[in-house]
Structures are given as structure tokens and as C-alpha cells.
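note to self — DONT lose this again. spent like an hour looking for the file last time. sequence + predicted structure for the chain T wanted, 168 res
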Amino acid sequence: MVKIVIKKSLDKLILIFSFIFINFIIVIINNNTIHNLKMETQQLSIIDRVKTFEDALAIADDQSREECLKSLEGYNTPDEVAYKKLKLITKVINEGWVADYKDYTQKKYCLWFGSQLYGANVGLLFVYCICSSGDSYAYIGSHLNYPTREKAEYVGNQFLPLWNDFLF
């Protein structure tokens, strides 16, 4: 009788340990899968992950996403909508980098659009007019700055329709 009780108890213990061991292995496999997915996402550069405004919206932190969506509610002109979208895209592409306007040694890249015939005589934010609106020069660039030339050029090319709506 004692042998039978011990055997049943041992069988239960083996069953419990087997269950724990199998669950432990499943957890390890799941964690590795999650870890691998996170690593794959992290290995892609931000430029590879942001191809559309919707991509930027999905990657943005909750507060930035909510602010952007709230600001797009109601009546907005096309240039306002484009600016608000470009502002969020810039924040996501910059990955936390913020231009320090007090630091003149910090490189800040902004987009500069102009015609091929006359050069880039139109600024993005502040325009100083000497004689007429046809003779304007920008002395202060856009607040949509980027830490690298690569990021600035990418946003300029990838989101050209938005820049068109914003500027012209």
C-alpha cells in the first residue's frame, strides 16, 4: 500500500515538474521570439521605418500622437495640415533630438527649396523683404530641423507633396 501511495505521489510530482518544465520552455521560446522581433525592428533605421505619415503616427509616443490628431481636428487650411503632419514626422525622424538654438556650434539641417533658375531665395519661416515680395531672402531657417543631412534630404524627398502643401 505504501508503495502504491509513493508511486502515485511520484507520478503526480513528475507530471507537475513536466508541466512546469514545458511551460518554462514555452516561455523561453516566446521571449526569444519577442526579443527577436524587437531586435529586427530596432535594427531598421528610422528612415526605413517611416515611409508615410501613418508610419510616423504609429511610431510616435502617445502624447505626440494625441497632440497631432487633436490639432488636425476642426478647420485647417491645407498648409496648416501639412505643417502639423511634417512637425510630427520631424519629431519621429529625429528620435528625440531637439535643436538647441542657443548652441551655435550644433549643426542643424533644414530644407531649403527654391527654383533652379533663381536659386533658393525663399525661406521656410521668416522672410526679410528689401524692396518687394519678389526680392526676399531668408535669414532664419525652419523650425523643422534635422540632426543630419541624410535625414533632412530623406524627409524632403519622401514627403515632397506635404512640403508642397506647406510652402506653396
